Amino acid sequence: MPYDIITQLISNLDIPFVFEIARIINNEIFFAAFLLLLIFIGEKDRRIKVLFGLLFVFLIGLTIKELTHIERPCVELNAKISCPDSLSFPSNHVILLSAVVYAFWNKRSRWLYAALLIFVAFTRLYLGVHTLLDVVGGFALGICGYALFEFISKQIFKKNETKI
């Protein structure tokens, strides 16, 4: 299957120091710890809410993966790492980090969060484990999923306030 030109161009790049960083980011345990660090340096009173929001968008991502059942590009592209066994669309890394960026967009450091998101999305393409569609879809689902989570949680808390 031919992939979009951006996916092909980025996955064909060879930048050794980017590879090392991308390989570290690819590690699920490191990435989970990184997300937790971003959450815990965020607003203290929102940490639990953001954690539940991440769980919500993660479940959305898993559901979409099962519904679309899109294979990873590394099955056909020359990936820089071994091809993960999981499905491709959407990128879990991007969907989760997008949700964190959205959750803390009111912070002064929002541009740093946004830059991290762009870099992580780039590394997914660079390693050859995702396509441009996977990362753009992950971005959209992360933002929309977290916005939906906030809407639902506000409705739940609004109902609870009227009962008191």
Description:
- This protein is an all-alpha fold.
- The protein has one domain.
- The protein has seven helices and no strands.
- The protein has helices spanning 5-11, 16-26, 28-40, 47-68, 92-103, 110-127, 132-163.
- The mean pLDDT is 89.
Task: List descriptors.
mainly alpha, single chain
Task: Report the helical percentage.
Answer: over 70%
Arithmetic mean of pLDDT = 89
Q: How far is the N terminus from the C terminus?
A: 58 Å
Outline type: globular
Q: Gyration radius, to the nearest Å? A: 17 Å
Low-confidence sequence ranges? none
Element-level helix/strand string: HHHHHHH
Strand share of the residues? under 5%
Total discrete domains: 1
Question: How do you describe this structure in short?
Answer:
By secondary structure, the chain is mainly α.
List the SSEs and their pairings:
Blueprint: H1 5-11, H2 16-26, H3 28-40, H4 47-68, H5 92-103, H6 110-127, H7 132-163
Helix pairs in contact: 1-6, 2-6, 3-5, 4-5, 4-7, 5-6, 5-7
